[in-house]
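A quick aside before the break. I want you to see a complete sequence-to-structure record at least once, exactly as it would be stored in a machine-readable document. Don't worry about memorizing anything.
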Amino acid sequence: MVYLLATVWLNQTSMALVPAFAAVVAVIAAVLLLLPRKPIPSRGPAPPWWEIPLRMIAATTMVVTITAVAGALGPQLSGLLTPFPVYTTVLAVFTHYFQGPVAATGLLRGVIAGLFTFATFFFVVAGTLETRGLGASFGLAGLTALLLHGLSLWFLRQPVRAS
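That is the input. The structure line, written in tokens, reads:
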């Protein structure tokens, strides 16, 4: 419900680049802090052979549906709808079903931590595209994203401290 309300609000909103990026980083940080941080148990039994093809079908169905209605939704709203439902929903549902809630929470922590990189990549592209050009802008954004993602992985791999 929060995602739906945020999408409706964001579709009606326009912000300058720096304040928008700061707001995104603050929201990502808040969500990451609110998610439970528990050790992920060792792997259980392997999922059945049909699990990956079923994930692919579910994700493809969502992509095709959003693409089919993108003309009616417009570029901003279809862009707001695409990232979250396509990969996060499919991965979280399957992980929860086959590995349980602790593993699904771990997956969501990883996705949320990865959003810092996602947001930073697009922040750098948006801030440099007009002045640096396509190649330099995407190259700089890619290098920045690699550095930040490395830091995110380091953060995620820190041992869990007992409360």
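Two observations worth writing down. The CA atoms of residues 22 and 104 lie 27 Å apart. The helical segments are 2-11, 17-34, 51-73, 75-81, 83-99, 101-132, 134-156. We'll return to this after the break.
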